[in-house]
Write a structure and sequence with these properties.
By secondary structure, this protein is mainly alpha-helical. Helices cover 67% and strands 6% of the residues. It has seven helices and two strands, in the order H-H-H-H-E-E-H-H-H. Strands 1-2 form a two-stranded antiparallel sheet. The longest helix is centred in the C-terminal third of the chain and has 22 residues, at 107-128. It is globular and about 60 Å long. The chain starts with 14 loop residues before the first helix and ends with a helix.
Amino acid sequence: MANLPFGFERPEDSPGFLLWQTTMIWQRQIKKALEVYDISHAQFVIMATLLWFEAHGYDTTQILIVNWSKLDKMTVSKSLKKLVSMGLVNRIEHEIDTRAKRVSLTNKGKELVHKLVPIVEGIDSGFFSQVSVTEQKNLIQILSRLTTDEQRLIDLRLANNNLKEQNA
């Protein structure tokens, strides 16, 4: 067999590959449910985030949505433009920081997201019911650690930059 660069004997031994597969299966189910409402998964995440932020008194800006959701800036910007054109979201200049955009749900947006959250949570419930409650809690702890450890992300970026420099 050829000398392959993989660090695993089998693809299913790679946590990255398994996470990719799991994410694709889960996202496919959500995409199918949201298509009926002409809403993408990213748009749903933005609307649900806006609902959460409003309920908790956040001064919601596009950058806050980016930082909270982990969506990239371009996806948030394009999604918000579409949501504004659909009459689901308002986006206005921030009164304090003129570089920022204040974002909020319209009444129509609130009605839709109130309908969609139970649908998506139902998909989540069914998808994750394949593992025990204890395993779900463990998964939440693991994923939380991976998504909130900013220093780890910085270290990964530095490692990638060092690798690129070494290969140059």
